[in-house]
User: What shape does this take?
Amino acid sequence: PKVRAYLCYLSILLRLSYDEIRTHLKTSYALMVSDGEISHILEKEAGALRPAYEALGERIGRQAGIHEDETSWPVQGGARGNYGWVKTGTETREALFQLGESRGGGVARKLTGASCSVGITDDYAAYRGIFKDKHQLCWAHPLRKLRDLARSDVFDAVVHQRCAHAYERFSSIYAT
Assistant: This one.
């Protein structure tokens, strides 16, 4: 059990490749493991943790609001995709991560589940329609867009002034 836990630590937290795990275990502990054994151990441990993972997703999904976001993330082997997704609530510091998926809307729907919470996301199209009429865009995104418009030098003086004014008004609301 300790070797399995350590192998998970090496793979998940230290993000070592299978080759690096094999080399480390052989050099440090004279343990010989194959790629198949590493894969089997990781799958078995993931299965054992599945109920806790699903309960975490349900707890977060019952909060008044949930934040969801996706990003590219290198995944071991890359067979399923190199994207990571995160779901956090507005009431606790808990977070649920899903790695190795595509960037498609099906993943966003699966991550959201049956939650009736307000969904807070960026403006990525995959989130549209998932939260019905309870969808809030993360304010950091329009703040950055307005900032960039206010700092842009491609507009004439009138448009530039309007952009600067909109940014000032929005950023004061954001700061509050």
